């Protein structure tokens, strides 16, 4: 906090922070690119029911998807439902069923407030939608304390995708890293509950961005093991190799940011994205 009491924001581009900001935005751009890639390969890898890539980030055909667009009536109805549940929780704050219902209502309200760019098909999470997601995560964490090792599979899927969405729109690099790590941890629950090509493929992607490449490689092999043919297994490996590469680049940005914060590596920050500049999804 500055002496004047003014909070120094991410958008402060004075001095050294300009280079640091470039790194942060470049790294978050990888996550956004990953979202676009999920759009492209979700249909191919999601075969075999629940746990598909698109479903894992709320883009599938099931309920609560980002693709539904931000309809005001739907979001208001869901917010009203969430507020009603919160009033009921005041009497019994540890009610597992109510906490689950609250998390789902907030997640779905956030999805309803998410807009889709008609030109790119890329989800655009509004500030109102993000606020709903954050409240949903708070309710989710409270719910997990009650549910223990056996949470609702459908809600777990929503939570994993929500963490990933929050990572894409985080205000700081550290926050983005924390959210992607939470997405990976939650997606592991999804894969344990609903093992499928899609759930393991999604887990691999989240693990790669979380920096756990050994776990990501294991998830790729598990996804391949559930493939219906050798050609499908080969396609899974090829497609997920792209995410492994981007995960490595994301790790590189972490190291560059750490050096920048120590007052080193300023020259490396001038063009932090190098080979990914101009790369499409």
Walk me through the topology.
Blueprint: H1 17-45, H2 53-56, H3 72-89, H4 96-112, E1 114-116, E2 123-125, H5 127-147, H6 153-168, H7 173-193, H8 197-210, H9 213-225, H10 230-261
Antiparallel strand pairs: 1-2
Helix pairs in contact: 1-10, 3-4, 4-5, 4-6, 5-6, 6-7, 7-8, 8-9, 8-10, 9-10
DSSP strand content: under 5%
What's the N-to-C terminus distance?
38 Å
Shape: globular
Task: Give the neighbour order of strands across the main sheet.
Answer: 1-2
Low-confidence stretches: 1-16, 35-70, 265-281
Give a short account of the largest sheet: 2 strands, antiparallel
- Computed structural class: mainly alpha
Give the averaged pLDDT, no decimals: 75
Helix percentage: 55-70%
What order do the SSEs take from the amino end to the carboxyl end, as H and E? Answer: HHHHEEHHHHHH
Rg calc? 19 Å
Total strand segments = 2
What's the tally of helices?
Answer: 10
Explain what the structure shows.
- The chain has 281 residues and is mainly alpha-helical.
- Helix content is 66%, strand content 2%.
- It has ten helices and two strands, in the order H-H-H-H-E-E-H-H-H-H-H-H.
- It has a two-stranded antiparallel sheet with strand order 1-2.
- It is globular.
């Amino acid at each position: 906090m500055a002496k004047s009491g003014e909070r120094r924001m991410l958008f402060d581009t004075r001095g050294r922070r300009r280079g640091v900001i470039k790194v942060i935005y470049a790294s978050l751009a990888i996550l956004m690119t990953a979202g676009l890639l999920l759009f492209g390969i979700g249909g191919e890898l999601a075969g075999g029911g629940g746990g598909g890539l698109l479903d894992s980030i709320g883009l599938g055909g099931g309920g609560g998807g980002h693709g539904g667009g931000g309809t005001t009536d739907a979001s208001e109805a869901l917010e009203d439902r969430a507020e009603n549940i919160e009033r009921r929780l005041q009497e019994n704050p540890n009610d597992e069923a109510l906490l689950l219902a609250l998390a789902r209502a907030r997640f779905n309200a956030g999805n309803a407030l998410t807009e889709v760019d008609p030109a790119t098909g890329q989800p655009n999470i509004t500030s109102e939608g993000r606020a709903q997601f954050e409240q949903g995560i708070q309710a989710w964490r409270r719910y997990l304390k009650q549910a223990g090792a056996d949470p609702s599979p459908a809600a777990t899927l929503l939570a994993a995708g929500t963490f990933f969405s929050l990572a894409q729109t985080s205000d700081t690099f550290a926050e983005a890293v924390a959210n992607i790590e939470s997405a990976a941890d939650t997606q592991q629950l999804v894969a344990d509950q609903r093992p499928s090509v899609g759930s393991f493929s999604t887990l691999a992607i989240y693990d790669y961005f979380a920096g756990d490449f050994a776990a990501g490689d294991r998830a790729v092999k598990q996804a391949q093991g559930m493939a219906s043919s050798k050609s499908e297994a080969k396609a899974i490996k090829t497609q997920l190799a792209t995410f492994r590469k981007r995960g490595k680049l994301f790790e590189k940005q972490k190291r560059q940011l750490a050096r920048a914060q120590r007052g080193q590596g300023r020259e490396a920050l001038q063009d932090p994205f190098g080979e990914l500049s101009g790369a499409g999804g």
